[in-house]
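During the no-cost extension, the postdoctoral fellow (Dr. R.K.) reprocessed legacy sequence entries with the updated structure-token encoder. One reprocessed record is reproduced below for audit purposes.
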Amino acid sequence: MDDLIKVLLGGVIGALITASTNLFIHFRTKKKPSGHAYELLKKMEKLLETTEADYYFTQSADDNYNVCNHIYIHADATIIATAFNEDPSTYGKRDLIRSYRYGSLFFRITSEDVCNVAAQTETRTNMAELLPGSRLVVIPTGKPFTRIDGIFCKFKDNTYLCAMAFRDPNNISKNRGVVFRNGIAKGFYEYYQKLIDEYQK
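Re-encoded structure tokens follow.
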């Protein structure tokens, strides 16, 4: 009987050691998230008072503003900003692009039905003053495309970050949003880059 117990205990201990070793190897070799997009997302935890994740939901227009400003301050490469639901000329001198450093790497996309010719001139003037080298791309009326207001970033290390706004139709102060990185963010970035390639003059 004692021998049987020893054999059983030996088997259990062996199984525990094997399982522990496998778990250690799994977690030790699991690739940790990295890259500029991940670093910016991590910094947003404190900004949005949330815990670590690969995406964050914003709960207010103020959150959206703070996230956008955070991205403009810390981004190190190309930013595509879209304005399909509001006339970008209304941003005036308060436009958050004033916090960005790389004018030649900034594109704002809007559409003719939102930003008429006079508004386009005003927007270009403001952008040239606040961020020299930045460009406004206007999609002609009647062209089919997906209208999402947001900021779509590609960083020097080929990581991607996206911040999109969900507009409250009755009260913009109740706007919400979401911020996420890589996979889907890359898809959105590439989609809007194609629109730039097609409609940039």
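Strands lie at 55-58, 78-83, 106-111, 135-139, 150-154, 160-166, 176-181. The chain has two domains: 1-30, 36-199. The remaining legacy entries will be reprocessed before the final report is submitted.
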